[in-house]
UniProtKB/TrEMBL annotation:
A GO biological-process term: deoxyribonucleotide catabolic process
SUPFAM superfamilies membership: Aldolase
Protein family according to the UniProt entry: Belongs to the DeoC/FbaB aldolase family. DeoC type 2 subfamily.
Lineage start: Bacteria, Pseudomonadati, Bacteroidota, Flavobacteriia, Flavobacteriales
Protein's name according to its UniProt entry: Deoxyribose-phosphate aldolase
InterPro entries cross-referenced by the UniProt entry: Aldolase_TIM, DeoC, DeoC/FbaB/LacD_aldolase
Source organism of this protein record: Brumimicrobium aurantiacum
Pfam families: DeoC
MF term (GO), any: deoxyribose-phosphate aldolase activity
Length: 243
């Protein structure tokens, strides 16, 4: 299938996760997203740090754009579980529709798989009616076997989406990683379909098409909707509009 630029924009979690983000810069960012919507290039969601949740929720209130927030001590997931959960709860209280967390890679590397699953379950328990995206950090995991195992653990813990990358410390998405994740989702469809978020390095129409073709191959055309597929990106939408 040939996807239009507007269809691709409709899958995007438009992201601003900079160390220098401020109320002024985030307000401008939100204004830009709403302007894209007026031009017919509506994104699926806005993705921000938790301290901007309340501001963004008010700004997006009259739109159909979802508000995604990275939480749980993003991007490394280090710290006491209680503080990570508290940060998520605050974001939910302030209007977040979706929460993106990072899988506990330390417990994963130590082989403490029950602990990994339990932690994801604890996050999901906070948001039974909201979307939980679990970031695997595939650029760190590297091997197909490790990416497969992390995908399986996240799904067992109750993830609504599994996501490739934070886009921070490690390399972002690759076709190889997305292919492994898509296969795991397909294999677990009978337990309920889990979404897939491709994040880190998707900047052009051609980049997006390559990933969409990969996802369609393993999960079918019906999977390619904002309900199940997202592309985390900061520059993709503007590039599509201006290209």
């Amino acid at each position: 299938m040939t996807w239009t630029k507007k269809q691709i924009c409709g899958l995007v979690d438009l992201t601003s996760l900079n160390s220098f983000d401020s109320k002024n810069s985030v307000t401008s960012f939100l204004d830009t997203a709403l302007e894209y919507q007026k031009q017919g290039f509506q994104v699926a969601a806005i993705c921000l740090f938790p301290n901007f949740t309340e501001l963004a929720a008010k700004k997006l209130k009259s739109s159909s754009i979802q508000l995604a927030v990275v939480a749980g001590n993003f991007p490394n997931s280090q710290g006491d579980l209680s503080t990570k959960l508290k940060e998520c709860q605050l974001a939910l209280n302030h209007g977040a529709d979706e929460i993106d967390i990072v899988l506990n890679l330390g417990e994963f590397d130590d082989g403490n798989y029950d602990a990994v699953i339990s932690e994801v379950k604890a996050f999901k328990a906070l948001m039974p009616n909201k979307q939980l995206k679990v970031i695997l950090e595939t650029g760190y995991l590297k091997s197909p076997e490790r990416i497969r195992k992390a995908s399986e653990l996240a799904i067992e813990g109750g993830a609504d989406f599994i996501k490739t990358s934070t886009g921070k410390e490690f390399p972002g998405a690759t076709i190889e990683a997305v292919e492994v994740m898509a296969k795991v989702i397909a294999e677990n469809k009978e337990q309920g379909l889990v979404g897939l978020k491709i994040s880190g390095g998707v900047r052009s129409y051609d980049d997006a098409i390559e990933y969409l073709n990969c996802v369609e191959k393993h999960l079918g055309l019906s999977f390619i909707t904002p309900e199940y597929l997202r592309i985390g990106a900061s520059s993709l939408v503007s590039n599509l509009i201006n290209d």
